[in-house]
Request: fold
Amino acid sequence: MHPRTLSLIAELELQPHPEGGYYREIFRSASQVQPGDRRAERSALTAIYFLLVAGQHSAWHQVLSDEVWSHLEGDALELMCFDAASSHSSTIALGRFAPGGTAPIHVVPAGVWQARGLWGNMR
Reply:
């Protein structure tokens, strides 16, 4: 594994994520919200660090709320999305801003299937 990857895992105290990669929750709002779809009350906002090592990918999954992805460091991440309601699929390159290429932030709407992968040189 790349020395920077090992350093980030240690310094950020990341743990293996059940869907693949490494993570740590860094914020959970004390404020609660009641979703309009009859789900139980939940935190208004949560935030995590998430890290994938080159060659890793996450399992396909859905989340019940909109999810914001922010790229902070390393090689570009492929964020694959599939909206079953419209049969629309897309692949977003999440990374340092490049006109017509990668972008540092992307929002995955609630209910959209998503998976991610990293095929760079941070091993």
The domain at 3-117 is CATH 2.60.120.10 (Jelly Rolls). The CA atoms of residues 82 and 114 lie 6 Å apart.
